[in-house]
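Hi, here's the filled form for the chain we discussed.

Project: internal
Contact: R.S.
Residues: 398
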Amino acid sequence: MRYRYHLNLAGGLYLGVTLLVGFASTVRPNNLLVWIFGFLLSLVVISGLTSGGALFRLTMRRLDPLNGRVDRPLVVRYSVRSGSRYLPLFDVRITESRRGADRSDGWWTHADPASAWVMHAGPGEVVHGEAVFVPRRRGRMRFDAFEARSSFPFGLVGKSVTVRQEMETLVFPRTFPIRENEIDRLLGGGVGGGRAGSGLGSAGEYAGLREYRPGDSIRSVAWKRSRAGENPVVIQRAIPAPPRLIVLLDLRRPTDRLRFEAGVDSREREEAAITFAASLAESSIRHGVEVGLRIAGIDLPEIPIRGGRRHLDRMLAHLASIDLDVTRSDRSIAVPASNVAAMVAIHVDRVDVAIGHERCWHLLPSNLEDLMERSPGATGVVADPDQVDPSTGSEAAA
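And the returned structure, exactly as it came back:
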C-alpha cells in the first residue's frame, strides 16, 4: 500500500489565507489575530488527521468482475474494510489508476474513467462500492492499481491509499438480435436428427430396449419382453435433436492485405465480422439451435456444437480473445459434411466459396444489417450461396 496526502485548490487557498493571517499576527501581535490564526491552523490539522487516521489501516480489494460486453455496463465492485478502532470512514471515492500507461490492453483503452463511492463505514466494518464502466471495444481489459481518497470533513487536506491488485476480464463483442425467420433460412430447414434418451415421459420414435434403471417410468416397461425373475426391460425412445449450425469466421487474410476501397478502415471491418459471428451465435442459441464456432486463419481451437447459455459464453469469450495483430495462417480448415450441420461462413472483404461445404452460406459484415430485427413490415435479404459471384463476393443479378 502507498499512503499520500493531497492539497486541492480549495485547500491551497485556505492554507494561503492561513499563512497571511499568521504573518500578520507575527508582524503586529494581536490577540484576535493570534486566535484566528490558531483556529484556521487547527482546521487544517483536524482535516488531515481525520482523513489520514481513518485511511491509515484501510483494507481494500477489487472483487473479480464478470465478463463485460461492448456498449453495456460493466460493474466493478470493491470491498472496503475500515481498520481504525475509533474513527469511521466518510466520503471515500475509489478510482482505478493508469499504472503502466503504455499498455495497449489497460482498462483506459476500453472505457472512460469511472469511480465508486462509499458514504460511510464504521470502525472495523466492511462495505462495498461499485464503479460502472461502459467498454467501447472487445478484448482483454486489464486492471492494475486502484486508489481510495477522502478529504473529509472540510475538503481541505485529503489522503489517498493506493493498492496494487492485477486483474483482468474479457469484454465480449457487441451483438445485435437476428430475426428468427432469417435463422431458419440459414439453417435451410434445419439439419437435425434423433438421439436416444432415457428421460421420463419421452414420446419419440422407438430406438431399442435396455434394462430397467431406478427412476424409469413404469409405463416404459416392455412387459411382453420382460421375463419373470429377471430385471424388467424398458423401451428406449429417441428424442428429436435440435438444428445444428457451424459459424465459420474467415480471418485468413491479414489486415494490411484486405481489399477495400480507399478510406475504408480494414480493422473496423474485421471487428464488424467478429460482431456478426457473435450476433449469429447468440441469436441462434436463443432460438434453440446448437452452434459451433471455427476460426480460419488464427490458431485457436474450434468450439464444438453445443447449446445453452454457458456454451454461448464460451464462444463469446473465444471471439473476445482474438488478437488481430498475430500472424495469420492460410491453412484450409476441416469442415463436416452438409448433412451433419448447416454452415455460415463470414468473410471480411471477399467471399471465398472454397471454404465450407457445398451448402454453406457465405456472408459479409454488411449483411448483418439486413438480418437484424426491425420494426414490423421490414424485410431482410440473405445472400444465397447459389447467387454469389466468387470473384467479387457480391450478389449476382437474379
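Let me know if anything looks off before we file it.
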